Amino acid sequence: MSPASLVNPTARTLRTGWSRGLIELRQSFTNGAELLSHLLWPTLMLTVMYVLRDTAFGSGGLMLGTLALPSILGMNVAMGMVSMSQRLTAERQDGTLLRAKATPDGMPAYLIGKVVTVGGGLLADLAILLIPGLLLIDGLAAGGAGSWATVSWILLLGMAATLPVGAILGSAFSSARAQGLIQLPVLGTIAISGIFYPLTSMPEWVQWLAQTTPIYWLGLGMRSALLPDSAASVEIAGSWRPWETAGVLGLWSVLGLALAPPLLRRMARRESGSSVTERRERALHRVG
Fold it and tell me: Residue 203: which residues within 8 A CB-CB, separation 6 or more?
């Protein structure tokens, strides 16, 4: 066999995962229910920001709608971990994960596909929110190349920090019902992360707690990219703290990428036809 006829296994896995992810992403925009989910959340958030557009925070002249837009963009990136967790749990329950495990290089290609699907959906949702938001909300400073460069590195580092966490959560739950338990903690974290109201207006212990989460730093990073420098006056220490943002998100990325692969391999090893059948029977019994 000539060298030209050999296919690099890594390249084949990447190509298979990329193709799978693009197919699933395209299907998510042609399926009515999934398309509605892509459009509903940005529409609700735009409505909230529009209502808050004339509500000032403090005496600095900053409007809550202006502060909220970049914060919500950061929150949407963080919500990718919920999407990743939900997809892994659902496909573990219906046997999709087991079928991927049974094919050569199936698991790596499957996970690459999930990253493409969830990451692509996040980018689309951000565009759906940001483009009309720039037209409806005044006071943003998003005209320079530096702003979009900051958005880009925050987005990439944010997905690296949150998607592995979503994979870890997905490996921890064997049913969609159990996976739903993470919704309340995530919503609670969003509530204290300065997304809808500046963190400096909250008690000091809440500020310290919020700064341990990637959601706060994603919101802060997006605000630093899309708001004027004067808006930093309402932040902790009156600064955008870019180095701290990169450091905390980088730490979450390292932890997630270190823990996710062994946990996912362990989950895959435990999958079998009998376990899938058992989960289906439990689900049917609950429905009955």
Answer: none
Query: Residue 6 above 50 pLDDT?
Result: no
Whether 110 and 17 have beta carbons less than 8 Å apart is answered as: yes
Q: What is the DSSP letter of 182?
A: G
pTM of the complete model: 0.86
Taking each helix axis as running N to C, give the angle between helix 183-191 and helix 80-93, from 0 to 180 degrees, rounded to the nearest 10.
180
Q: Residue 62: beta bridge partners?
A: 57
The region, left, alpha or beta by phi > 0 then psi within -120 to 50, assigned to residue 61 is: left
Largest CA distance in the chain: 75
CA atoms within 13 A on the CB side of 211: 18
Separation between Cα atoms, residue 114 and residue 106, nearest integer Å: 12
What is the C-alpha separation between 97 and 133, in angstroms, rounded?
A: 38
Element (H, E) at 233: none
